[in-house]
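writing this on my phone so excuse typos. first protein, seq and then structure
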Amino acid sequence: MSRRTLLQRVGATALGLAAIPASSLAQALPGDLEAAIRASVRGDRDLDRFYEERDYRPLWVAGGRVGPEAEQLHSLLATAAADGLSPRTYRPDALVEAVERADDGPPRALARAEALLSRTFANYVRDVRRHRDMGVVYTEAHFVPIVPSRTAVLTSAAQAPSLQRYLETVGWMNPLYAKLRGALAGYGEEQAGPVAHIPAGSILKPGSKDPRVRLLRIRLGLTPDGAYDAALASAVRALQRSHGQPADGTAGPLTLALLNQGSAETGALLRLNLERARALPAQLGRRYVLVDAAAARLWMYQDDRAVGSMRVAVGRPTEPTPMMAAMIRHLTLNPYWNVPPDLARSRIAPGVVRDGPQHLRNLRYEVLSDWSENATKVEPGSIDWQAVVAGEREVRLRQLPGPGNSMGRMKFMFPNQLGIYLHDTPDRTLLREETRLVSAGCVRLDDAPQLARWLFGRMPVARNAAPEQQLTLPEPVPVYITYLTAAPEPQGVALRADLYKRDPAQLAALAGSRRNRRQR
């Protein structure tokens, strides 16, 4: 097979990388392959340990043939830039050469190709697993992503039901990472930006006479001269659906921002959110809860499939919901609401100054001596409420369980030092809004009973009206709170508003890191 033919076999040739020849993927070789592999990995402690445990049986070779998985690995290496890595680090041409020599060669050549495939794959996976500090709070040590040994990398691959499927799904990373990587791999480093910039202004909709309609038609590939007609509205809806936005067919500020954002910016945003996904554990668990604060939505996953979803309300920009990996360990029925001190000062204390202690009784609040578990009740009349309003004194208030309690009927607890949890709410009005940034950092649920039933396999019921009844989960369930301003959706990638303004600083840090890597 000629070198020209090799260069035509993989899309990675845009990077100047050769492809693995098809003939090497199908040629059986006689001989004692296991003995040859033993000799090929001698001196490489990690590889020798892996192959010794499997009696030196090959991973990449079956029936005396190099399997198609070698081609899949080569394709991954060719697109390693999507992982923030340099493809040339993994010497893909050497991989091609080794497989070429195995073609019609002795068992020793096939064993050398086997060893090189395993060594390259293990090095690549270890590099992909190196995460950056993206501000995720890990409540337990096992959540912190680790870089596995090469032996562990290969053992996991060998234990997969199908190596081919394992490579296709990027099985050594979590599904969020795998899907974002697939989207990023489709973006070139130097793609052109938008063909027409559309200035800000009023919302464009069917019937609009605004001169920007012409630019909108150009940007969406329609003939320039024309009205905001059904064809244009359909094109706008298609764009909105592809980015996870409400498909109303009108071009408001967010839709225009999507159109004006060039592919270089989109690629950078995908790369940033890939890092946020990389900062989550590689294996999320058989059952887990995922909250995306940028989407203000929660999903329940079982066996890598979303089995339920709901709207949530998250923290205000001044009190953002943090990114976190934690373990839901128990449910509290008939919960108290411990009022954050700033809310006690700004929302409740002025009413006490105005109406007296009766204001607290009407709203079912009580005053406690301190924030310890052994706090005692305090008479409201003994508190200088003017000092509380002025910020000169802090007071602990808690609201008794009941229909008006801000926690609703239940809250889901995952121990953490930030006091973050998921909870019910008595008022779902705000959950009907598109933008749901209303809490002090905790996550309000649109359907708390649905989550409770899924977690426990039944609907938990309080024994009586007593407050703070705790039900321990038989098996704790992970909860991951993330913030994806570019997120995988069934129809593509959804680009979302950076409501917490986290993107600029992290994009700048990521760009600086990439510049430093290129200079080394």
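second protein below, same order as before
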Amino acid sequence: MTVYLNGNVVTVDGEFSIAQAFAVEDGRFTAVGSNDELAQLGDDVVDLDGRTVVPGFIDAHAHTVHLGLDHAAEPTLLGLSSVASIVETIKAAAAEAEPGEWIVTSSIGEAPDYFNLPEGLTEGRWPTRQDLDAVAPDNPVHIPTPPFWPHPAILNSAALDLLGVTRESVDQPGIQVERDEAGEPTGLIYGLVFYNARNPVVGKLMSLLPAMSSTARQDAIARALQGNLAHGLTTIYEGHGNGRFVPDLQALYAANRLACRVVTTYDVPVGVDLDDWMSSVADAAGAGTGDDHLRVRGVTVGLDGPTHFGGALMSQPYGDPHDVLGNGSSALTVEQLTDIARHAAAHDLRFNVIASGDVACEIVVNALETVHRETPLTSRAWVAQHFHHVTREQIERLAAMGVVAQVCAGVDYGRGVPTFVNRLPGDQWEHVTPVRWWIDAGVPTALASDGMHEPLFHVWAALTRIDGRSGRDLLTPPKTITRAEAIRGWTADAATVLGVADQLGSIEPGKLADFVVLDRDILTCPVDDIRDAMVLTTALGGEIVSE
């Protein structure tokens, strides 16, 4: 038994109590209390020297898998600050490539925010197809749009030819081809992103791009999972866009390469026989299959897209990334979503629904209420993901059905002024991701990163709601939460949303000993110091995995 003494132990138990000490044995917390109570319990004693300890952080919308794959792109353009350096990097890649071989790079900019582009590049502009043609005439080149901001994808002439984009091409909904004064494509195309996966141009591009080998894919995922530990992130929820990677996670688990705990779901495909398909994923039914390190549980559907890409389905039109008034759309009608949810209930599959706009949220609420009248959902803890523009009345209706929530309070940092303030009508920016409303309705509410920044940054972002570009304070009453609530959102409430609250999320006897030692007390330090707080030690099941 190892006993940790002289700490500021933020247990995140039901009373949010603060202890001095805790003991760990066989991977679990065995005792929590005062120094006097625990000092004689074991011979292996660790002096915490007054440092703050919190439960291991749980990211309920991590996208670690996708980040790992994105960061595996070669060549990488991340951090390059000029068109000249970008072109030189692609030139070197072309020198190593066979004629006709695709060159697929990372996105341009500084991850994860991709601020200050293209004006931050030395030339003050994006590369064009002519820049790329000069160094890679025989290889199709694709510089992708980052997932977090609607910058253009950039293609050279060889790639444009394969994609069938010419001066005669007509823009399609969600896709905009930039043209020069002569009407020729410049190589910049807006909207070539997975949010527009139903668009045939996006589908064609995806079919043309080379697939990673399973070995390379699993190596990339393993590196990303390992990287989580340095940030105190011990458990993640891959509950969206991850179904096809379940075999990779299972292979990593079998090879003992799954660095942190993972709970994941399957994505409901379009146009399938629902009974047949849901029977085929019976391993995700009920409590799912797996163990405390990897569990497959439930299914996920998504309705609309993110507001900053113009994809959220709203009750009022709003500006798209090109300042054109428009609106998003939903992949499913109320009737279609009701049918899927009804099948999920019949197959005992925990149901996750992703929505953004208030109209999309209303589709979800109406569909679930129909199923709830037929088969009570109260005890099923189905999951509402994102729900950026949900109304207070919709939250109350979801709460009545026992729905739990996953939200990303960091959206104001990455998108606040340019998207929510400048493009939404009226005062709608004041209640984007209204965490206060969720908590006041009694809904267990997990905070999450959506693949951007680390947990402590997001604790700060949830408390301040600062716009990252302008520094403007966007905090309003619907967004205001306490430090304890923010920490719960990354620990105990996140465990509830993942369905693992009996094992994780707090420092209590019997639970798995995942904990993080910090360099400061995030309950009492100046709020702006939280974003700079450092993780000194991360433990998973009592084992030190990062320090």
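The CA atoms of residues 491 and 505 lie 4 Å apart. thats all i got for now
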